[in-house]
Structure formats: C-alpha cells, structure tokens
Amino acid sequence: MRPLPESHHGTGSSPGCLAPLEIEDYAFEYVSETVRERIEEHLISCPRCCRLVSDELDLRDAFRLVLSETELGRRREPRRSRRGGSSLTTAAGFRVPTVSLDVSTHGAAVLAGVPLAAGEAVLLTIGAFTGPAIVRYCMQAGVEYRLGFEFTGVRTAAITAPP
Fold this sequence. Notes:
This protein has helices at residues 20-27, 33-45, 47-69; strands at 80-90, 95-103, 107-112, 121-126, 129-141, 144-151. It is of the alpha+beta class. It has two domains: 16-69, no CATH class; 77-151, predicted glycosyltransferase like domains (Thrombin, subunit H, Beta Barrel).
C-alpha cells in the first residue's frame, strides 16, 4: 500500500476529498450521474479516497451477500415494526433482556447483549406473547447482537403492533 499524500495526514484532508456520507452514497449508488462523475474524477488523483471507496464497496458487497444468504434476505412474509422491551430464556434457564425490533406471525428479530448459536431453542417473550422459538441467525450489531427467531410452538398470545 502506498503512503498517503502529505495533505491527508492528521485530521485534515485536502480540498475536494470525499465526506464519509458521499462515499457511502456513491458505494450504494444513491448519487446522480453528475455527482458520480465528480467523485470518479477525484478518485483518479486521490489514493486515500480511492482506498476509502474500495473499503466501502467491499462492505456493501459483504452486506448484500449476508442478506442474500440469511433469513433477512428470504423472509416468507412481511414483518411489522415493534420496538419495545422483550426477553428470552435460554434452554439453560438464563433470562436475557432484549429489545424487540420487528415481528410476524412466524418470527421476530430482537437486539440482545449476548450472542446465541443458530438452531438454539429459547422461550421468547414480547409484550403479552410468550412462546418457543429457534434462533435462525445471529449477527453482531455494534456492541449488541441482532437475533432472528422462528416461532416453533404454541404461543400464549398473538403479537400485535403497539397502538
């Protein structure tokens, strides 16, 4: 890897360098043709921004791959947003507080402070609902984990969206 030009060292950057949101918008193809051309012209002469864009493109491709290979990308039905307090109880009896993100009649997604293995059985509680579920996926989301569940048995109540 070549060293960065002097103008890119430290906290500053040279005039015309790309802002982080510009890089993200470019990588996800959210920019107009005019903006795309301006960015590509800048990338020709700026190794730092070129590396940042390359990293963002790699991240975009990885994100798309994960979506295509997980339950997130193959949902059988629409889910409703339902943010709120929830919890799960592991087969070993440990209760884990969670935050529910969305639900459907067949599954739910929550944020938890601990990872669980795909296939692990739990008892999931969201509002008045309590029922058995299987972990379909577990992905790190910052310091937390996004867990996707498939309901597997009789539930105590139907899940409804909050008023």
